[in-house]
Amino acid sequence: MTVEPDSAGVRFPPPLVYLVALLVGLTAERFVTLRSFGVDWWLLIATGAPLFIAGTTMMLAATGLFRRLGTNVRPSQPATKIATTGPYRWTRNPMYLGMALIYAGLAIGFDGPIAFALLPLVLIAIQARVIAREERYLEAKFGDDYRRYRAKVRRWL
């Protein structure tokens, strides 16, 4: 992934972090005793599907807003505007929150307690390696506008 000089400097696609952890967790289920949440499949689907749908909806809304604003979605590219409408009214990171909801929905839907247990580690990695860089970059680039936005809207929810 090519990293532009005017960017947050994130050197890997953040969705890859979620995907790799999910696959590691689901694969680990094959080799350990704890292989199930211990509930019926219909309850897993009834719980996982709404999380997946909510996450997908949030991701699509946030991505669509970025495209309408004419700013880049990828953190390796320059930001041209601060998004403050749509899902950005409630969270500064709707894309990462959406990915977390998708991850949780898939982990539950596929009956993957180990994958689900890895989600906090994924969120810590995203916070430390992606969001922290993005926040420094946006503050340096947009100054008081970003600081005012950050003061009004929470990082996650």
Describe this structure in words.
The protein is an all-alpha fold. The chain has 5 helices and no strands. The radius of gyration is 17 Å and the shape is elongated.
Key structural traits:
single chain; 157 residues; mainly alpha; 63% helix; 0% strand; elongated
- The overall average pLDDT, rounded, is 95
Determine the structural class based on helices, strands and strand pairing: mainly alpha
The span between the termini is: 29 Å
Principal-axes shape call: elongated
Give the SSE map:
Elements: H1 14-28, H2 41-69, H3 94-109, H4 113-142, H5 144-152
Helix pairs in contact: 1-3, 1-4, 2-3, 3-4, 4-5
Brief rundown of the structure:
This protein has 157 residues and is mainly α.
